Structure to design on (462 residues):
């Protein structure tokens, strides 16, 4: 009953079946009690006991509709910490404003703090738990805007940033500067002139975000020994943490060697790229959605699985995509048009209706859809001229609702609207039925005359 999201949508499209999401698996273990005995969490506990150090929980504070985190997971971790009698625990919270109301974090913080006080779910040296606050614009960047990541790292590790006496004061100050939750600058909460807490040598961290695409970039300076060498254009860490035990809630992907995964990804076999093996195939998107058209659509594999080609077009370097609502769609379209004759199958992600709608700017979202229309028209003409078929679909709604009619506030979240599936072909030969995202890959295979793998339980849409 939740709105769709890009990770789940692309995984289901590529897998050709219903893929159980990490959040569902975690919820099952919370209900059974197995969550509270997770070996990764136990390792974090053993580490802080051995070194008499602090435990830090880091992640997005959002409502229950976000694909990036679930507030119930944070509360469960706090209950676990109480059960284990963790001596010192601190929170580093990222405010949302994209998958939740642009001004919703103040109520979320207050609700969390009431829970902490009432349930005594955690303890700290000073009776304070929330050490830093940062908007996801800074803390969850995924396009290698390392200056944003550095500001977050500096706040969490060095205690440097904008200062406030409480999380509420930090958020209120930000609202007074007309900064919505997404854009709250990294704040350090201070008491008596000192940061409440910062991550230090020998500490343990649990990064409780669910999706890898917006967690990897921040995780890297914490876990990569040679971070500066491995990330061109990155930043020099003011402090390289020693003997840090870092737990990722889910699989955040490769090159994060010094980390432990609490819930590793399931092995998804015979996805769409694997089924098309032997044919020439291309997957293309701009930077913002490159992971989705590659890593997620092929079942969570970082590298090509069937010799498929991949092309990433850089996204524009702007603070907010309503400033450039076409983003890089014309560069993608031009590249696809030049590549069309070479390939049997091409998968394209056009990021703009999602990314621009997240800004809440209705006029810019309208322009983004107009750009989509122009590019789809050009692509359809060229594809039909080559005797091909064009499929137009989406993995979730967003631009279809941009105003909350009850509050009058801009609506930046995903929606639960059903998405279209449009088949553009000569002669309109096929009559489509209603289906699910897991039916897309079987439909593609049927169009291409390729046998559907037994692991794909979806059904063709005609």
């Amino acid at each position: 009953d939740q709105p769709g999201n890009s990770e789940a949508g692309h995984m289901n499209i590529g897998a050709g079946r219903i893929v159980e999401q990490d959040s569902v698996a975690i919820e099952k273990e919370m209900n059974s009690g197995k969550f509270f005995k997770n070996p990764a969490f136990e390792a974090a506990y053993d580490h802080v006991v051995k070194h008499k150090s602090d435990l830090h929980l880091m992640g997005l504070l959002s409502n229950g509709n976000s694909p990036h985190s679930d507030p119930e997971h944070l509360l469960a971790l706090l209950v676990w910490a109480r059960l284990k009698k963790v001596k010192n625990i601190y929170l580093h919270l990222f405010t949302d404003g994209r998958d939740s109301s642009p001004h919703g974090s103040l109520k979320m913080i207050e609700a969390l703090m009431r829970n902490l006080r009432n349930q005594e779910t955690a303890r700290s040296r000073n009776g304070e738990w929330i050490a830093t606050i940062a908007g996801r614009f800074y803390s969850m960047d995924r396009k290698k805007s390392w200056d944003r990541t550095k500001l977050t790292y500096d706040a969490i590790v060095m205690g440097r940033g904008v200062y406030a006496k409480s999380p509420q004061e930090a958020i209120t100050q930000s609202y007074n500067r007309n900064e919505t939750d997404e854009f709250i600058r990294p704040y350090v909460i201070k008491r008596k002139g000192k940061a409440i807490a910062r991550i230090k040598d020998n500490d343990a961290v649990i990064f409780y975000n669910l999706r890898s695409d917006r967690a990897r970039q921040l995780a890297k300076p914490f876990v990569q020994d040679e971070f500066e060498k491995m990330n061109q254009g990155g930043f020099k860490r003011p402090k390289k943490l020693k003997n840090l035990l870092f737990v990722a809630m889910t699989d955040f992907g490769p090159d994060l060697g010094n980390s432990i995964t609490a819930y590793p990804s399931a092995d998804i076999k015979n996805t769409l790229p694997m089924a098309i093996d032997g044919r020439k195939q291309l997957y293309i998107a701009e930077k913002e959605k490159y992971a989705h058209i590659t890593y997620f659509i092929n079942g969570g594999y970082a590298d090509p699985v069937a010799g498929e080609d991949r092309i990433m077009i850089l996204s524009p370097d702007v603070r907010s995509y309503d400033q450039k609502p076409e983003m890089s769609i014309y560069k993608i379209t031009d590249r696809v048009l030049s590549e069309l004759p070479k390939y049997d199958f091409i998968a394209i992600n056009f990021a703009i209706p999602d990314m621009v709608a997240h800004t809440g700017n209705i006029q810019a979202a309208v322009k983004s859809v107009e750009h989509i229309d122009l590019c789809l028209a050009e692509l359809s003409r060229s594809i039909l001229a080559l005797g091909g078929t064009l499929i137009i679909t989406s993995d979730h709604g967003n631009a279809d609702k941009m105003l909350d009619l009850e509050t009058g506030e801009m609506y930046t979240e995903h929606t639960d609207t059903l998405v279209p599936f449009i088949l553009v072909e000569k002669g309109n030969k096929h009559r489509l039925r209603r289906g699910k995202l897991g039916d897309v890959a079987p439909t593609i295979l049927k169009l291409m005359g390729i046998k559907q793998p037994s692991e794909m339980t979806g059904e063709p849409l005609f």
